[in-house]
Amino acid sequence: MASSDKRTQIYLPEAQYRDLQSLARQRQVSMACIVREALAEYATAHPAGAYNLDVDPLADLIGCFEDDETLSTAHDDHLYPKK
What we know:
Layout: H1 14-27, H2 31-45, H3 75-79
């Protein structure tokens, strides 16, 4: 373990824990090693900040409402009008 590594703790369902333990034994590595590899693979497949509007069900709402030009900048005035 490198000195810059951070310690963390996770809770796994029993079945995942057994699978992780079995895989680590088969590969003769630590369970932590398997978790780090899985996280690295996941992070590569889902980079931070990469947001895909094609799979967001709310993306269809973008642009479907008409409003005056001030709605986005003065939304509080529209939501909480002065009495």
